[in-house]
Amino acid sequence: MLNLLFTIVILHYDISNMALQISINTGNIELDNKISEWLKWNKDAAAEHEIQELILNNDDKVLSNLFLKRLEFGTAGLRGCMGPGYNQMNDLVIVQTGQGLSMYLADNIVDVTEKGIIIGYDGRHCSKRFAELTATIFVSKNIKVYLFSKVVPTPFIPYGVLKYNCAAGIMITASHNPKNDNGYKVYWENGAQIISPHDKEIQKYILKNLEPMESSWEVTKIYHSSLCIDPLDDVMQFYFNDLEETVLYPEVNKNTILKFTYTPMHGVGYQYMTAAFNVANFKPFIVVEEQKLPDPEFPTVKFPNPEEGKSALDLSIQVANKNSSSIILANDPDADRLACATKIKNKFLYFCDSDEWYIFSGNELGALLGWWMIHKYQVQYADVNFSNVYMLASTVSSKILASMAKQEGFNFEETLTGFKWMGNRTVELEKMGKTVLFAYEEAIGFMCGSKVRDKDGISAGMHLAELAAYLETMGLTLLDLLNEIYIQYGYHISKSSYWICHESSIIKKIFERLRTYSGKLNTYPTDILDGKYTIIGVRDLTTGYDNTKPNNKAVLPISKSSQMITFTFENGLVITLRTSGTEPKIKYYSELCTPPDEPENVEVLRNILDEMVSAVVTEFLQPEINGLLSRIS
Ligand SMILES: *[C@@H]1O[C@H](CO)[C@@H](O)[C@H](O)[C@H]1NC(C)=O
Ligand SMILES: *[C@@H]1O[C@H](CO)[C@@H](O)[C@H](O)[C@H]1NC(C)=O
Ligand SMILES: *[C@@H]1O[C@H](CO)[C@@H](O)[C@H](O)[C@H]1NC(C)=O
């Protein structure tokens, strides 16, 4: 019996392999049509097999999900699981996206053929293929293409857009997502990531250009076309020359006794961080051998995300211990973000528990790098006038830069979450003749200077290494400086984490409940722990409600498609609850600050913060009732 079944399946397979004659009959005509259309346009044999198998198994639920939905082009471009269908990342979806995007650029940017487009890719499965397909489409439309000949850090794309004055840039990467994901990130001609309404317009153009042109598939042509140029050598030279110009104390770097350990987390960073250390005059770092080269399987980490804290840095810590190295620098796989850990020398500092290694939060690194960028600026420009100088941070990041700005006399602005907004604001400020010295977000993204209008884990790594070497000459560590910063500018204690929720309806329910807390719309919670802590301000950037502003109207732009509410408590605690654009998470960010002239017992503050955050989670998110999963690590 089993044998017979087996034969039948094999038979089906043979027929289908020959000429797509497999019968598609799911009972849903729309679905049938979408599947046959996809099979007709697709040229990837493995993907075709996968679909045929689903059809043979009558897996209608999966099929509907793959074919009746479509990956939506957003401000982050595309991000999704790799696999067949319109709702995943694959050759056909990449071709359709490239066709739509190229038409959109042609209609919206003058001289697009001359200006051209710059394309890069990371070390994931299919990334190079997706980049080549994308290049093919642009070349077939006579648009100049700068296609990197090997994996590069994501920041090379925004850097290249400005250097070559391109019409746009595309990076094929899913950053630190799980290994089966990939993504397609787009930069506009101003070197910043696209913002609305470009995303919606591009989506319309994609939908108008779905049928692949034959020329879109002719990948080998790009390697014979004079329109397709490899910018690697050029960009290496320009980028690292620019970086070298920012190096403040090359002699200090050269002679430092500090040993640095570095991991690119199985991603692209190794060669590039090596070059950065080189131009800064450092001796080579110790590399985590197992994670040195790009490996799309990310075999040594559960998640290739240094933000996940210790588990992602386990191996680095082992290597550092063996080599008596006291500082670890880690990039995420596309090297746009930076994590850092340091061996604890002074256990009396309050924020160090008994662990041997301390992993800095994004907010702490933001404070350190912000301080260092000010120091560099002051040394490099003796008669410094800070009135034209700006630093930016996203609204869910620590306000430590705001406190520094107040004392030092530079300007601080907050933006919505995501570097697309900080890139956007950087462009606007520079147009007004201002200098943007530094921008950061707590998700370990740092922009040092503005030659890259996005986060850059390579330059941030070099700057942080320099800062550590500089402090060492005075017998100080990064942790000591952090302590000094808090003493001078006030304590800023923060706590951020997230809950996982795969059901968008549950997420919606949670936030709707907060908006109608006592029945009517715009009645938000007024306290926690039965009145122990009072809420004095509510800002809802999904609906535009802000009871701290005239007419209850929020000032920052609102986004109906994502959830974001900020509560300000009477004792100064600020906590934001928001959904993530690229992951199934509800994130929270909280901070409790003290003015510099009111030193308090930090232990006490830490306890209050913990108590309040856990009450907000229990009362507002209700993890048990809503079946939320706690974070990994
Ligand atoms: C680091 O330690 C490992 C293991 O002990 C050793 O093989 C390697 O040579 C060391 N690297 C450096 C740069 O000292
Ligand atoms: C700094 O520059 C601003 C604007 O150019 C000017 O108004 C201000 O007086 C200057 N401050 C100092 C201390 O020179
Ligand atoms: C920045 O974003 C705002 C709000 O969407 C928009 O009006 C403005 O044109 C953008 N600026 C740039 C330089 O893209």
UniProtKB/TrEMBL annotation:
InterPro entries: A-D-PHexomutase_a/b/a-I, A-D-PHexomutase_a/b/a-I/II/III, A-D-PHexomutase_a/b/a-II, A-D-PHexomutase_a/b/a-III, A-D-PHexomutase_C_sf, A-D-PHexomutase_CS. Keywords: Carbohydrate metabolism, Cytoplasm, Glucose metabolism, Isomerase, Magnesium, Metal-binding, Phosphoprotein, Signal. Residues 1-19 form the signal peptide. GO terms for cellular component: cytoplasm; nucleus. GO terms for biological process: glucose metabolic process; purine ribonucleoside salvage. Residues 71-209, 239-343, 362-486 form the Alpha-D-phosphohexomutase alpha/beta/alpha domain. Pfam families: PGM_PMM_I, PGM_PMM_II, PGM_PMM_III. It is found in: Cytoplasm. One of its GO terms (molecular function) is phosphopentomutase activity. Its cofactor is Mg(2+). The keyword Metal-binding applies. Its main location: cytoplasm. Belongs to the phosphohexose mutase family. This is Phosphoglucomutase. The lineage of its organism: Eukaryota, Metazoa, Ecdysozoa, Arthropoda, Hexapoda.
